[in-house]
Amino acid sequence: MPTHHVFEYKNTFTLESGATLPGFQLAYTTFGTLNAQRSNVVWVCHALTGSADFTDWWCELFGEGKLYDPREWFVICANTLGGCYGSTGPLSVNPETQQPYYHAFPQLTNRDVVAAFDLLRKDLELERVHTLIGGSLGGQQALEWALLQPDVFERLIHVASNARHSPWGIAFNETQRMAIRQDPSWATDTETAGSEGLKTARAIAMLSYRHYNTYAATQQEPGNSITDNFRASSYQVHQGEKLAKRFNAYTYWLLSKAMDSHHAGRDRGGLEKALAQLKAKSLFVGVNSDVLFPVEEQRFLHEHVAHSSFYLIQSDYGHDGFLVEFPQLTEAITNFYEEEERLEELSFEREER
Fold this sequence. Notes:
Radius of gyration: 21 Å
CATH topology of the largest domain: Rossmann fold
CATH class of the largest domain: Alpha Beta
Distance between the termini: 47 Å
Strand order of the largest sheet: 1-4-6-5-9-10-11-12
Largest sheet: 8 strands, mixed
Structural class: alpha/beta
Helix content: 25-40%
CATH architecture of the largest domain: 3-Layer(aba) Sandwich
Shape: globular
């Protein structure tokens, strides 16, 4: 099982906006053992409502006998800054006021998040990372981090994500935040502010995470006489209530805004120039039925990152296919590593001639 840790940063932390935090903490987990060469590090970036426990939401990738076996790899994942699973976020106590931040927590970008991650990396004295992997929001953060520290990350595995968040994706997120704003409790400074709105926001989000075919396969009524109380209706309610029990509206708001702000080309001369700076050997993975991060976004990355690889997952689960189709994702990553080894062997043979 992963081991849980907390990293404390006690200096002023300046955000991309110019706002500051008087220090922060990151909750993180590690799995496996760092080898003597410190060359077996895999760093995982989680999605919007994920946690540092990657064996929970990507369980089929990590474990004995699986792709990332702890006997061979040292895996690490930190709960994002602004999160609600142990890292400093809106429900944390502001040391300057001795009160929770609530609405006063400053807005974050993905660059702020990975700058915090990088302080943890330096504290752990990890000069090189074998593989940086993330999906969705985590994929956005992984890309930003690989651009921030191009000499640290040897390989990037970027799953169901993009180089810049689209107007379509922003519109989905804003519609969810509109639901939170309609909750009268959102105007209060309380731990549960916006919790009813969060339920609706999550129900809206499910329509972007899944696909028509997903609902047809799992929520179709068995009979011919139903006129109310549909399975699909109760499913939406259930999903909203389930998230509200484990998450809070502040963090949901904050991280959805961070997702919207994602633009790898910001202050780097545009996307093409930014992506040309990426040094990590890169694999871009898309899901054929993803309506939130459609495949053309991963193909764009593949086309603009030299010598990169691309893999298309076939799934009826839409965007959530990256959390469901484990055999295909395992195959994608395995092929990526094996192709690199094959090219290295060919290069070695040419040198020997």
